[in-house]
Design goal:
By secondary structure, the protein is α+β, with helices and mostly antiparallel strands. It contains 13 helices and 23 strands. The protein has helices spanning 2-5, 9-51, 83-91, 114-120, 155-159, 266-272, 292-298, 333-339, 387-392, 440-447, 499-509, 537-552, 557-604; strands at 56-59, 62-66, 71-81, 98-110, 122-131, 134-139, 165-182, 189-205, 219-232, 238-248, 253-263, 277-288, 300-316, 343-362, 367-384, 395-404, 408-417, 425-431, 434-435, 449-465, 469-489, 494-497, 524-530.
Length: 605
């Protein structure tokens, strides 16, 4: 069939020409490939050295050019800093804070036109794919802002003699092995990440984009993704995991999903630490208008907003007291912000549907009480330790709406002074109607009181506080309160009712209503609570409000002293009864002994 098709002379000539052209293209491809590799190597090394002012150098083992496919494959690439140049720049105060080292087994550049690169000095690439990349970044704080250098030319101005134009549509890196070394603290901190993906899109370096601030590293968008990250703190007391983290520079957005911070078991934790134990489960956190470049270069965390959604934050007050008392002032939000080494400036934090649980162990009851704040939502404004920002506004305001013990609606407002050395703050709030029996999970273990009945109409407070004391007023309006006083039953590991004391309290002590009568003025409790250094923030709030609740229901200091005196008298009476019982028992034993003596005497006679 083929021979029959080639029976005409012009057909044979056409086939010969086609085969000749094909052979010529293949030969040219081989020649260009062998000729291109050293040219490509020289070009790449020159571009890297020039654009980094000699700080970085690049090497690779070989490069293949596939003319017909428009593809370049480069093998065994190593990008690393020149330590001699780095040390010179460091002495001159010009060294960057971050140093990068990159190892790639294979780099594939697709849809590239080497002839245009060689003759027109224009590099246009469709896709860059990096295989098995290993990225090592080390951070050392050499300066806190951009340094003034003699050569202030842009990257395009530096490379324009070699290249007039660089455009790469997509850069893809999958399954990156990432190691991060932080030398900025007291000791070296090393983080190692896996299951990490990077992608960059629309990289363009030319005369138009050299000053384009909408681009990061000349890219329209850089996306980084981290999946299934797990680790432990240096102390070993906490483990943490993150389902996914995604950063997009075009949207200036950082998204975190599935964040879990889990402490060691209570027995292990409290045996090794005197700090409060906390647990965090967070569905999502989103940082908006995040200035990634400032954070990368100088550890400045600047963002317009942070949204925290759906989670639980649980605190367990440490029951063990250290022999050397340490001030837990850093548990106060304004003190905690001030103690952060990084520069932070977040305009607004939006909180959505968070549950906050405070647990405290009472040594007398040998049980744990819980205060719960369910479905907490609200805003926090001006979260910052930036000196310039604090000069303009040194107050951070937090407004929250929550459901106390999953019942009454509680609205609170906090104002924290971020510059006061005494870490002053104030807070006020209003709690709506609820059944007071809902307080039993907290007041039974912590106050050893059981609420049998009672309706809360309103609870409000207005407190001025600092690290030393809290002062203000508490108003609690309620009806028909009846309680039982409790004591520990060590044999059954539970609490049992004090019958006589409960009866005495309900008849003679407790104020069953506030106000006492309809139309009367309600009782107001004026609070003056002194904080001890070992008392943390949440415990300070709870104890301050509790010191206002007690006198509101009739348990003022005078009444509490009377109750204590009565209880002491009861204990003494119980001891006296026990002593009299022992005396009667002893007298019976003496009489029995005397009878036995007389009996033995008669027997001898």
């Amino acid at each position: 069939m083929v021979l029959e098709y080639l029976k005409h002379r012009w057909q044979k000539i056409s086939i010969a020409i086609l085969l000749g052209v094909t052979a010529l293209v293949l030969v040219l491809a081989l020649v260009i490939n062998s000729y291109w590799s050293p040219i490509l190597e020289a070009k790449v090394k020159d571009i890297v050295a020039t654009s980094s002012d000699g700080l970085y150098k690049i090497d690779f083992s070989s490069a293949d050019l596939h003319v017909l496919r428009g593809t370049i494959v480069i093998f065994n690439i190593t990008l690393k800093p020149d330590t001699a140049v780095y040390n010179i720049k460091k002495k001159a105060g010009l060294a960057p804070n971050n140093l990068v080292e990159l190892h790639i087994k294979k780099l594939v550049l697709s849809h590239i036109h080497p002839i245009g690169l060689y003759f027109r000095h224009r590099l246009n690439i469709g896709q860059v794919m990096l295989y098995n990349p290993e990225l090592n970044v080390s951070y050392q704080l050499n300066h806190t802002r951009d340094t003034v250098v003699k050569d202030n030319r842009t990257a395009w101005q530096k490379i324009s003699k070699s290249l007039h134009y660089i455009h790469i549509r997509d850069i893809l890196m999958g399954d990156v092995k990432f190691t991060y070394k932080d030398y900025s603290g007291h000791k070296l901190a090393i983080s190692q990440l896996k299951e990490m993906n990077f992608s960059a899109h629309d990289l363009l370096i030319d005369s138009a984009t050299q000053t384009d601030r909408s681009r990061l590293l000349y890219c329209k968008d850089i996306t980084a993704e981290l999946n299934n990250y797990k680790g432990k703190t240096a102390s070993g007391l906490y483990s943490y995991s993150i389902k996914s983290v995604k950063l997009s520079t075009s949207r200036s957005q950082l998204n975190i999903n599935g964040l879990i911070i889990k402490p060691a078991d209570t027995s292990v934790f409290f045996s090794k630490s005197h700090k409060d134990r906390f647990t965090l489960n967070l569905d999502s956190a989103q940082l908006n208008h995040f200035d990634f470049l400032s954070y990368h270069k100088y550890r400045i965390l600047s963002a317009a907003g942070l949204t925290i959604s759906n989670g639980t934050f649980q605190i367990f007050a440490n029951p063990n007291q250290s022999k050397t008392i340490k001030d837990k002032i850093k548990s106060f939000p304004n003190a905690a912000i001030d103690s952060i080494s990084a520069d932070i400036r977040i305009d607004t934090v939006l909180i959505r549907r968070m549950n906050v649980i405070y647990n405290e162990y009472n040594a007398k009851s040998k049980q744990t009480g819980s205060l719960e704040f369910n479905k907490t939502s609200g805003h926090a404004f001006n979260i910052t330790n930036n000196k310039a920002a604090l000069k303009k506004n040194n107050i951070s305001t937090v407004r929250l709406t929550t459901y106390f013990m999953n019942r009454g609606e509680l609205n609170t407002t906090f104002n924290f002074n971020l510059t006061d050395k005494n870490h002053s703050f104030n807070y006020k709030g209003h709690l709506g109607p609820m059944n007071l029996q809902a307080l039993n999970p907290a007041v039974m273990p912590l106050a050893m009181v059981k609420v049998n009945s009672g309706k809360l109409k309103e609870f409000s407070f207005d407190i001025q506080a600092d690290k030393k004391a809290s002062r203000g007023k508490v108003v609690m309006l309620y009806n028909d309160v009846k309680v039982s006083l409790l004591k520990a039953d060590t044999s059954n590991d539970k609490l049992k009712k004090k019958m006589f004391a409960s009866l005495f309290a309900n008849i003679f002590i407790l104020k069953h209503n506030n106000p006492d009568n309809e139309g009367a003025q309600p009782r107001i409790a004026w609070v003056n609570y002194s904080r001890t250094p070992e008392t943390a923030f949440f415990k300070t709030l709870w104890q301050t409000l509790l010191s206002g609740i007690k006198p509101s229901i009739g348990l003022d200091k005078k009444t509490q002293q009377a109750v204590t005196t009565m209880q002491d008298q009861q204990k003494q009476n119980k001891k006296d009864r026990k002593l009299r019982k022992e005396l009667r028992k002893q007298r019976r034993a003496e009489r029995e002994l005397q009878k036995e003596i007389r009996k033995n005497a008669k027997a001898e006679l």
